[in-house]
Amino acid sequence: MLTFLLRRLFQSFLVLLVTGLIAFSMFRFVGDPVEVMLGQERTTEDIAELRDRLGLNDPFPVQYANFLWGAMNGEMGVSFQQGRPVSDLIAERAPATLELAAVSGLIAVVLGIVFGVYTANNGRGIVAQTIMTGSLIGVSLPTFLIGILLINLFAVELRWLPSNGRGETVDLGWWDTGLLTASGLQAMILPAITLGLYQMTLIMRLVRSEMMEVMRQDFIRFARARGLSERSVTFGHALRNTMLPVITVIGLQLGSIIAFAIITETVFQWPGIGLLFINAINSVDIPVMAAYLMLISVMFVAINFFVDIIYVMIDPRLRVDRAGAR
Amino acid sequence: MAFAERLRRGWDSDLAYSFRTSPVAIVSATLTLILLVGAIFAPLIAPYDPFDPATLNLMNGRTPPFSANQITGDYFLLGTDDQGRDMFSTILYGLRISLFVGFSAVLFALVLGVTLGLIAGYAGGWTDTIIMRVADIQLTFPSILLAMLISGVAQVWVDPADRQEAAIIVLIVAIGLSDWVQFARVVRASVLVERGKEYVQAARLIGRGPTAIMLRHVLPNTLSPVLVIATIGLALAIIAEATLSYLGVGVPPTQPSLGTLVRIGQDFMWSERWILVTSGLTLLVLALSVNLLGDWLRAALNPKLQ
Question: pTM here?
Answer without folding.
Answer: 0.83
